[in-house]
Amino acid sequence: xxxxxxxxxxxxxxxxxxxxxxxxxxxxxxxxxxxxxxxxxxxxxxxxxxxxxxxxxxxxxxxxxxxxxxxxxxxxxxxxxxxxxxxxxxxxxxxxxxxxxxxxxxxxxxxxxxxxxxxxxxxxxxxxxxxxxxxxxxxxxxxxxxxxxxxxxxxxxxxxxxxxxxxxxxxxxxxxxxxxxxxxxxxxxxxxxxxxxxxxxxxxxxxxxxxxx
Amino acid sequence: xxxxxxxxxxxxxxxxxxxxxxxxxxxxxxxxxxxxxxxxxxxxxxxxxxxxxxxxxxxxxxxxxxxxxxxxxxxxxxxxxxxxxxxxxxxxxxxxxxxxxxxxxxxxxxxxxxxxxxxxxxxxxxxxxxxxxxxxxxxxxxxxxxxxxxxxxxxxxxxxxxxxxxxxxxxxxxxxxxxxxxxxxxxxxxxxxxxxxxxxxxxxxxxxxxxxx
Amino acid sequence: xxxxxxxxxxxxxxxxxxxxxxxxxxxxxxxxxxxxxxxxxxxxxxxxxxxxxxxxxxxxxxxxxxxxxxxxxxxxxxxxxxxxxxxxxxxxxxxxxxxxxxxxxxxxxxxxxxxxxxxxxxxxxxxxxxxxxxxxxxxxxxxxxxxxxxxxxxxxxxxxxxxxxxxxxxxxxxxxxxxxxxxxxxxxxxxxxxxxxxxxxxxxxxxxxxxxx
Amino acid sequence: xxxxxxxxxxxxxxxxxxxxxxxxxxxxxxxxxxxxxxxxxxxxxxxxxxxxxxxxxxxxxxxxxxxxxxxxxxxxxxxxxxxxxxxxxxxxxxxxxxxxxxxxxxxxxxxxxxxxxxxxxxxxxxxxxxxxxxxxxxxxxxxxxxxxxxxxxxxxxxxxxxxxxxxxxxxxxxxxxxxxxxxxxxxxxxxxxxxxxxxxxxxxxxxxxxxxx
Lengths: 213, 213, 213, 213
Hints:
4 copies of one chain form a homotetramer.
Chain A: H1 7-24, H2 37-43, H3 45-69, H4 77-91, H5 93-103, H6 109-140, H7 150-164, H8 166-173, H9 178-194
Helix pairs in contact in A: 1-3, 1-4, 3-5, 3-9, 4-6, 5-6, 6-7, 6-8, 6-9
């Protein structure tokens, strides 16, 4: 009896996709088989690095998605569609992580650069879909609950875009150093995890107090 | 302490299956491995196309399933069974997407046609199971909540069937052009996402107001 | 802030495992690759049969699990543990379905028999774990909500065991005809879906009325 | 409209990851293929053992995680991050189980020892992340609900650490007997399932009574 314009169900579906994508990552880490377990374990280091960094990235994506939807009172068809595009990018990250795992090590350094550039491209795509979703939410604010200061929220768009400029830069950095690029992705994820853009609220609203439904 | 005839649990289970199926799609997109990353990335274009189109399709399936269940107050054994058949078709879509990925490109064009015909056949099967579910719901309306105008809902059956006629046509189109068929599937999914059949309500009922439980 | 002895969370976790296991089934259906798509599609018929039958089985397992937990008000450590064993068997069904897919066709008929016997053995294991769970619940009834007639529920144990005797028989039938055995599994699943053992309630309790919490 | 500092959503996300990881375990159990089904079934015994033990371990991890979060009223960024690290370790267990499956049998015994040492290392990592989460929760108790006796909870840290000392010991035991080490992991999981560290509550608080929200 829930309804589609009930944001809780869209959020639950999205949470499910995030949780599955983050857990599927491990399938891209090859399980050693055959002789020489020690050597084999060490030779898969790029898989482990791709796993750890991408796990953090999806985890932070989830947390930020969650924060935004915490102020969404209802959804419309456009929001559902934009959210679907966002999830489409996120769901593809196990593939992108697998690409990094396969080419970061052992391959020609030019191939590692391409792999990281593609990986960074997914983050560009994520920031674009997240930005589109944020743009739609702040355009008129008709989907937010009453706590949100829509005018102030609209003004965060530019800061949001500035914050996302790191990802195109990382596409470029891939051609300088692929391993460094992966490491920076991890650092950026943790940074955004602890320093995310707050949703601006009306004065006097305590963000820790739940909205009375 | 929830009960089987509680439609929320059937919906939650279905949402889970939709979310998992949509996320498993990425496992059918092969991760390039070995030399020539650039060439390999390009050569997998059919995987990417199958991923994007099928992701949209499952996403829209979920949204429409969700809308219908938004007016279902209770479930019976028949509805659970019909819903299970619907989920069985939906869960198989990663396989169908993998088939398209493997044959759309590179194979003889006759094989691409067969792959797309099978893929389109799954959409026929989906519209049949969704139609059966809708038929059961509208037959007596005993499972709907009180907002639904059962008489009007029953009359949507024909329009529902007419809307579904696109899928048998796409089975035929597969033999004309396989890539075009896949593209049309994507367009149709987005179209149904934004222009779905509304559930007819009694006059004066605001579809955005939750039913008082 | 939910608590472990809150049966809703155990149920939600179980629902998740059922939903994932049922959706993973498709990964055991091989996607045709290489020349001769028509021939290949036909040659995988045993995969499709294993998929359809096992999908129904897990779906009905979920429905019955759900019905029973609909009357469970609280859980204890033993119930959590027995439930974990039940889920362990259920989660392994994609493997059992893959075994049937690989041996039902093409292999020597003796091998198909072994595959179906193992598959049937999983159903024996499921009925044992489900029976143990039911036995624990009905032993003292301390975990049921107040609607359940514990004395009557305890007396269903024997009927429960009698109903489960079909599975050891199917282990034997595997050696007579493997395809027939798979078909009977499908029929039995649908039968139990529509004719499950009801949880006995006190006189005058309407099973469709939710318990006032 | 839920909020990130709402512990229920963090718990639901975590529950999802646990449920998916536990169900993905089966993908690491190879499905026999080709002639000699009987011999093949027997030769995969190490896969079955790794599946059963790791299933129990993740199940108990879930139960204990659940118990702790049952007393968490709100979350902060640090808790979300520590929880993400905990889930990262847990999500990797299908890989660790696959490693044990591949090397426990058939390989040189030195390789089985390394496989089990790595597997045990994951349990060390789990107890470290769980310990860090517990340490953060009990440090000031600001995230607990009012039932928890924070002073007493803080004093459980040492007992918690003592309980975890079993895992480094199992790293060592791997080099004595790999199969025995796996068996002990199973026994320890069941032991912790039935004898977990209770969260200390204020006097007179009934742990079975839900907190009035």
